[in-house]
């Protein structure tokens, strides 16, 4: 049953590609593939962390702000003439620190994940706006841009790296015991604790990992844009959650796969690409995301209710 959303999504994606190519015969071109693959990669790294969190029964809506702050730190340090790799380490440290704070607030202080990460989102966004005074920081050097411009056999290198990492984490989530316990935690937190699983420690590690991945995405995005934009990536959290839920994750935890979430993200990118080809105003995409979120949550709720009724009948 876990693979069912993935199979359905594969057929939907194939159908969408055929339709989009019919609308615009330039769809199946390398020129169109490169920007899409780079965009998927930047958001895909955060998607990995978000999927782990959702499966374990929590989430993080501060990742867009973390991405903006880390991207600003990376760009500002690089603009000051510091070695670009030192700038990357500084950006990742920022992400890790925020992840530690988020994780401790949720696990130790037992603050609701939505409230905790909403506060973090607001604070972090305020910090980056205050530091930048709302102005972009621009850098355009070969060293700064190499992470987004580098290609291997004509394919963006960062996309190849992302696909390889995605395959690895999808395998670990399906086969490795430590990662398999995330389903148990998300399905029944109390039972997981009774079985000896340190739920707080696991979730703390997931929050740290997710924030670090958001920082990495901020670095890649700044490299691609040749700038850090303080008010960028607002609302990215909703897009990632929608992608995860489309791919089979439950907002209640305990279900989903990494491949399914990735396919959900590809679906949203193709949808966005299709709307642009049809001449639809790009600002409508946020509204479309909201409609999809309501739809998939409703289907998720109906599916859960159906399963519970069947279990009661069987009992």
Give the fraction of residues assigned to helices. Answer: over 70%
CATH architecture title: Orthogonal Bundle
Q: What would you report as the Rg, rounded to the nearest angstrom?
A: 20 Å
Mean pLDDT across the residues is 89
Indicate the proportion of strand residues: under 5%
CATH class category: Mainly Alpha
Helix-strand string:
HHHHHEHEEHHHHEHHH
Low-confidence stretches: none
Strand order of the largest sheet: 1-4
Assembly status: single chain
Please report the total strand number as a whole number.
Answer: 4
Q: Tell me, briefly, the overall form.
A: globular
Q: What does the largest sheet look like? A: 2 strands, antiparallel
CATH fold descriptor: ABC transporter involved in vitamin B12 uptake, BtuC
Query: N- to C-terminal separation?
Result: 21 Å
Count of discrete domains: 1
Structural class: mainly alpha
In DSSP terms (H or I, runs of 4 or more residues), the helix count works out at: 13
